[in-house]
Design brief:
The protein is of the alpha+beta class. It is built from 17 helices and 19 strands. Helix 2 packs parallel to helix 17. Bound molecules: flavin-adenine dinucleotide. Flavin-adenine dinucleotide (FAD) binds next to helix 2, helix 3 and helix 17. Pfam families: FAD_binding_2 (PF00890).
Length: 521
Amino acid sequence: MKKLVALTLASLMLLAGCSSTPKNDGNEATPTPEAAATEADVIVVGAGGAGMTAAIEAVNAGKSVIVIEKAAMTGGNTTRSTGGMNAANTPEQDLIEFAEEAGVEKMLASAKENYPDLAELTATVEKQYEEFKANPTGYFDTEELFMLDTLVGGKNLNDHALVEVLANEAKNGIEWLKTIDANLSQVGSFGGASVKRIHKPVNDEGKTVAVGSYLVPKLTKAAEDKGVQFVMETAATELVVTDGKVTGVKAGDTTYTGKAVILATGGFAANTEMVLKYKPDYKGFVCTNAPGMTGDGIAMATAIGADTVDMEQIQIHPTVSQETSALITEGLRGDGAILVNSEGKRFFDEVGTRDAVSAAEVAQPGGFAWLIVDNKMVEASSVIAGYIKQGLTVEGADVEALAAAMGVDGAALVETMDKWNACVEAGKDEEFGRTSFANKLDEGPYYAIKVAPGVHHTMGGLKINTNTEVLDASGNAIPGLYAAGEVTGGVHGANRLGGNAVADIIVFGRIAGQQAAAYAN
Ligand SMILES: Cc1cc2nc3c(=O)[nH]c(=O)nc-3n(C[C@H](O)[C@H](O)[C@H](O)COP(=O)(O)OP(=O)(O)OC[C@H]3O[C@@H](n4cnc5c(N)ncnc54)[C@H](O)[C@@H]3O)c2cc1C
């Protein structure tokens, strides 16, 4: 079995052009393979963030749990996640100063102009904002503004009920993570969010660290400590249905039997054939995902009549290194980085939504851009230090030297940087309408990373309700079958906001574990 799985992954990697090495700090947890029991109250398929969160919550509700994972390590794409987790109305936000008036006003104007269907929600947010301005205490963010950002970002294709749960429960997810010793204490800006909402971990020196390689070992340890049994290097292939109820999972010759099954197998961005079926235009794009993201859960569930939603909604991310397929986190732009084209000129609001920034980038000469940071940003982030260590950057002691290393016109880049620093000082970007500025880019050495879009996230997937029950084509819940995380569709609509997927896996992973446990009573 192990050999077969290894061969399968290798061939998938070749097919998908996906990198085989997880981009983490070497912290992945590797539970001891153990295949003694084949029966438990709840069977979870996939040991990524959603699966392990669900497993922990099911055990917390008093149930026995087996997690089946096809890779040799826990984590999946969750290990690769870098930026952080969105949550509104948190105590962490109240520790920072509110200076995002322009972001809120821009969102309200955009929602009014483009989304009349969201008029009621927009009016609620406007009222909340007026009340805050009249009596400014703490930081301004609300669950309703989180919803509005997510719906506008997702072009209002999202399932509103799921988005409401996401927005209301994310702050509880941040608190829940503290119970497994995970503290996302730093709050910052990210694309498509009107205010500072993304929650990130920091190391002992106070530097930002990647969220996934921070969370995965903690989730794995918590699950192991609570007695979850992991069955590693074992790919589930089929759901078992008895008298109309899902009662287990087949993996090769072994059947794992349970009262409920949770699918948490992640998305399908690494399955080139499946991506091109829905988006033929993405032929030749690199992919940021772990190689195992091949849509297995979608195949298993649709084989027994599950419905899917938004399958053609596949996100490309604008800042991917084309040589290594490594994603360069949006957090850099949130923290002040700019994008310039091969002529050394800015061309778009860098913290716009991913679809919009990607489209603007593709329209530039050569279809690529340079992401620029300065030494102050490097000093504050071990994530950027990691990019430098991986050889992803070119460097210059001053802006002219950086331009030479990038092969762009020095005078043009100096003019761009001067103009940008004036925008930061004024808190206004007349040319492209960016509303989050952070600090000036004015301390050498300067660094640039060459980036272009890559296939990143599959917004579509299994159709679920707010209890994470998987629905059939008639909208009825399939008894005993639950799903959470990137295997599902509907939360993110036509475009996922950065930070919303980690919120998704924690919020809906928890619900899946609780609901499956209740069903298994
Ligand atoms: C480079 C990168 C950076 C990202 N950064 C962020 C970020 O900063 N913030 C954010 O919100 N989102 C981010 N995302 C998105 C986010 O990480 C994912 O959407 C999310 O982690 C998916 O979690 P999941 O639990 O649903 O799936 P995964 O974490 O992918 O886990 C799925 C697991 O299921 C296993 N599996 C699959 N098929 C089978 C099978 N047949 N049998 C057994 N096991 C199976 C896989 O091996 C895997 O371990 C990023 C994604 C990438 C790729």
